[in-house]
Amino acid sequence: MSNQKRTALALTAALTVAMAGSVVLMAAPAARAEVVDVNYQCETPIGPKGAVSPIDIKSVKSGSGYKLTMSFQKGVSSSPVELGKGAMNPSAVIEVGGAETGKVQVSGPANAEAIPANTPIKISDLSGTYTPKKSGKVTFTAGVLTIKALGTTTTCTPKNSPGPSLELDVAGADGSTGGSTGGSTGGGSTGTGGSGSGGGELPKTGPLDSAAALGTLGGTVLLTGAAGVLWLTRRGQRPTG
User: Fold this and answer.
1) Measured distance CA(9)–CA(102) in Å, rounded
2) Closest C-alpha among 1, 3, 5, 15 to residue 225
3) Pair 54, 36: CB distance under 8 Å
4) Tens-place pLDDT, residues 78-116
5) Are 225 and 8 a contacting pair, CB within 8 Å?
6) Which of 1, 62, 115, 205 lies at a 20 to 30 A Cα distance from 196?
7) pTM to 2 decimal places
8) Cα–Cα distance between 104 and 46 in angstroms, integer?
9) Is the separation of the CB atoms in 106 and 70 below 8 Å?
């Protein structure tokens, strides 16, 4: 095989590795989700109660924002009397941090079935909409839970400083990065919002660093390929004189 053909093959291999590394970086997840245990301490009409519930927050791109869904994997608080169908109405706050700060109000339907007395109250999925103003990484953490039933209000506050259940890499309307801004709205609609276009994908559990590490590996192989080209070129040269 001629030196020119060997050089061409080596260059082709190096370019292929470089393109593969770029594809890996482009495929890096723009969101990270994690189920977090939240220790809710509740102030009820009959005294304090508490329970730990794993909380999951998911996002789905919706227009210029994201629909957030907060899920409770275990019941919290309880009632000394049976709560009939439709008697309990839950709502909560999701704390926003990172590139911008604020709150997202989320709410859900009333209980579809009666809840027996002295039984942990299963909270339905709560949802609301977040629309970014700033660009960057934004975190979402479980905040205060409010339960209204039979004319009473129970407030449950996280006491264990839980970590974020969701992290999104978003693009705000102004295209700027960093900074903080806040705001909230009622009714489970829009929080920390204004108009804007968000970026990102559905959340995927796991660190974001793995894709970057693979991209670095692709760059290392690319350098190795370039060294091979240099070696082949030098090998093809014959001493003169």
Assistant:
1) 55
2) 15
3) yes
4) 888 999 999 999 999 999 999 999 999 999 999 999 999
5) no
6) 205
7) 0.62
8) 29
9) yes
